[in-house]
Amino acid sequence: MDLTLTVGVIAAFLVIFLFRYLSNRQAAPAPVRQPAVVKEFHIEEVTLEEPKKDESCACKEGNTTDEKTSCCRSNDNDDCKKDQIMNARVLYGSQTGTAKEWAHHLAANLRSEGYKATVSDLATFEPDELSQLSLVFFVISTYTDGKAPDTCIGFYEWLEDMSHDFRVPKDFYSKLKYSIFGIGDSIYGDNYCTTAKEMDKMLQRMSAQRVAPIGFGDSGTSVEIKDGYKPWFKGVSAGLNGSQKQDKKQTKTKPKKKVELGRISEEPDELSDDEEVKENITDVEDMGKFVKPVPQKKKKVEIQEEEEEEDEEEDDDDEELELVEGQAPKEMLTESLRKSLTKQGYKLLGSHSGVKMCRWTKAMMRGRGGCYKHTFYGITSSQCMEMTPSLACANKCVFCWRHHKNPVGKEWRWVVDEPDMLVDAAMKNHYGMIKQFRGVPGVTKESFEEASTIRHCALSLVGEPIIYPYINRFVQLLHEKNISSFMVTNAQFPDKIETLDPVTQLYVSIDAGTKESLKKVDRPIFGDFWERFLGSIEALKRKGQRTVFRLTLINGWNTEEISNYAQLVELGAPTLIEIKGVTYCGTSKASTLTMKNVPYHQEVLHFSQALCDSTPFMKENYEIACEHEHSCCVLLANKRFKVDGVWHTWIDYPKFHELAASGKDFTAEDYMAPTPYWAVVGSEEKGFDPEQVRHKRTKPYAGQGC
Ligand SMILES: Cc1cc2nc3c(=O)[nH]c(=O)nc-3n(C[C@H](O)[C@H](O)[C@H](O)COP(=O)(O)O)c2cc1C
Ligand code: SF4
């Protein structure tokens, strides 16, 4: 019995010892692999032999191969080790390219510090390779609910599993040096850069060594990613110089490798303080042009003092920054946002507004037809100015044509431009664009002259116009110039709807019928987005003028919720319901929409009829009034607007301006006008004005906002 017990205990010791020894070898490709042979090892203290240098080793003098061999990976060969230290891998996780861009920027910076830096996408990176690297930088962004970008979910989950797997030794990455630069948007509050933060925790759990603390790049409004990158890289640079010193020091002291009960321990001989100072000074000189040499005679205490002074200087800078922030708000558009929006064709006005010419304005100038607002409400498309007084909004809708290079905000926290200046600048820019059409084929003298007077303003370009602090004055200025106002809000600011003065037509975007799908489609930044959405609908009901629900149908996303939409209609009782098929905005990594998600006009008509028939309330109050086949758009109107069998969805604009100027209360019915036959659903023209000439585009049109 005793003998069996003794043999059993020894065998157990051997198994534990071997497992722990193998676990400590970072190069081991499979961390949980069990040892097959145990008899070569002894429990007592032994000195391991230095690994023999591989003949074909990449770092052998004169050898041109780049391939790392077992010798290099062992981390025990000085030459190889030096080579490894100077090899940095930058791994990025990115959906729309921002993190990728910064990963390349980082690699360039590392190269200029003397490192061999290569960049890889985590989407294709083989996770097991991580254990073979010695210096790694992660540049990674964050998405909805703090999740990793779609492209690198696989790697993220793998690392997470590893870090929680009890079979993986806690020091599995103890030889891995790393730092993380997270990219996100601080508007997401607690979810700001969570992917990066979580990955940092995971690597810490497995004992990876930070070269520098995690850094953050805020891609939000009014800030620049570089503001976070610069101090982070400064830390990386300092950390690398420090770790080079440390590595060299360890190499020079040639630690004896000992095995104690299966654990490798490195015990460098202790250095005295003086020796340590000397060591530091020599290393600084070694670094040549990258680090300022410190005179030999300087003692450690002086160096420390210098460091402290430097820290104090940095603190002063921070204070100054805070003071400036406290004194004056920043501008909404940063330089990079300006560049990106200008590239997309926006004429930027002041610090937070934009104007862009709508393709229908051009089309009608050339006699090629008007937009659906011409069909449904009688605007003259060639006299319409499309603009927004706030390029920032509170959503990141999947169908947004800006592909999310846009500012977002939960409230106004930027410099505010004067409304008079904005209206003037918008009109001036719009007229400037109109002028360019003089002499273009199809543009007649009459149509050019007509277009030279703005009569309508579509406050629906992009962004959220309602959050502009002077929105009421802004709209009043438009009305004073006999310009009607069509304002679209994304249903996240009920209090602003409440305090809004009468506009010609007020829209609320109803992008989904349920909380779950609204979250998927609009990707709102507010946590209480659903309550805000419902609150906006209720606020709309209390408005006296024309109100509209704008539904954007996306096949496979939000077309199955007819009864939910009906409930929302009952809650808001809008005058009109516009139902439009989503416009395909082209390929974008920010949105997974494809042409399959775009409904045909017949599908939109079918949905519209089903909505009208869905509940007794809908049947009693709404009917399909108009269609504009070209835009894949259908209009449902409250039956109050069918007077003696004739639809009155058009607007009497002079009457509206008269009512708005009167300061008295008025209702939607007070400025309605009859709809022409060709605009009514079922007409042969399908909503196309017979006075215009049809023109078939060969290329699809990409671009849609709210
Ligand atoms: C739909 C969506 C959701 C987002 N969610 C978050 C988030 O939860 N936390 C965060 O910090 N940033 C969030 N962001 C901001 C992105 O991280 C930011 O735009 C980043 O620059 C994207 O980097 P990429 O281009 O490398 O993918 C989100 C962006 C979008 C479009
Ligand atoms: S579509 Fe409108 S609401 Fe949605 S993100 Fe774009 S601007 Fe904002």
TrEMBL record:
Q: What is its EC number?
A: 4.1.3.44
List the catalytic activities from the record: N(1)-methylguanosine(37) in tRNA(Phe) + pyruvate + S-adenosyl-L-methionine = 4-demethylwyosine(37) in tRNA(Phe) + 5'-deoxyadenosine + L-methionine + CO2 + H2O
Biased composition of type Acidic residues is found at: 267-276, 304-321
Gene Ontology molecular-function annotations: 4 iron, 4 sulfur cluster binding; FMN binding; metal ion binding; tRNA-4-demethylwyosine synthase activity
Positions of the Flavodoxin-like domain: 88-237
Q: Which domain of life is it from?
A: Eukaryota
Output one GO BP term: wybutosine biosynthetic process
Assigned keywords, A-Z:
4Fe-4S, Iron, Iron-sulfur, Lyase, Metal-binding, Nucleotide-binding, S-adenosyl-L-methionine, tRNA processing
Q: Which InterPro entries match?
A: Aldolase_TIM, Flavdoxin-like, Flavodoxin/NO_synth, Flavoprotein-like_sf, rSAM, rSAM_sf, tRNA_wybutosine-synth, tRNA_wybutosine-synthase
- Which PANTHER family does the record cross-reference, listed alphabetically? S-ADENOSYL-L-METHIONINE-DEPENDENT TRNA 4-DEMETHYLWYOSINE SYNTHASE, S-ADENOSYL-L-METHIONINE-DEPENDENT TRNA 4-DEMETHYLWYOSINE SYNTHASE TYW1-RELATED
What does the function comment of this entry state?
Answer: Probable component of the wybutosine biosynthesis pathway. Wybutosine is a hyper modified guanosine with a tricyclic base found at the 3'-position adjacent to the anticodon of eukaryotic phenylalanine tRNA. Catalyzes the condensation of N-methylguanine with 2 carbon atoms from pyruvate to form the tricyclic 4-demethylwyosine, an intermediate in wybutosine biosynthesis.
Q: This chain belongs to which protein, by name?
A: tRNA 4-demethylwyosine synthase (AdoMet-dependent)
Organism ancestry: Eukaryota, Amoebozoa, Evosea, Variosea, Cavosteliida
